[in-house]
Design brief:
Layout (H helix, E strand, L loop, with lengths): L4 H30 L11 H9 L21 H11 L8
Length: 94
């Protein structure tokens, strides 16, 4: 019995693409689980913590896939500090 090389190649490419997507999904899950900690773990100033909590940001993963520049009520110094602390958990987009 012989296997058609084209069919085999298509099958391998399909499986490889599925595997890549599974790894991508896995990485997102790991990032979110790693961010499942209270904001107090970031050692932010109390005034900034209160401001964040007033706007319903209470866990690190609340910032996952958020662009800090779009959060209008944060000033530039707060954004820079927050970004530097969040980068320990996942890449942050200013």
């Amino acid at each position: 019995m012989t296997v058609d090389p084209n069919i085999f190649k298509e099958h391998v490419e399909k499986n490889l693409e599925e595997l890549r997507q599974q790894f991508k999904d896995y990485n997102i899950s790991i990032d979110l689980m790693g961010g499942d900690v209270p904001l107090s773990a970031l050692c932010l100033p109390k005034a900034l913590l209160r401001k964040l909590e007033l706007h319903n940001f209470v866990r690190v993963y609340d910032f996952y896939s958020k662009r800090l520049i779009e959060i209008e009520w944060l000033d530039d110094s707060d954004r820079r500090l927050l970004a530097s602390r969040l980068n320990e958990f996942f890449p942050v987009h200013l």
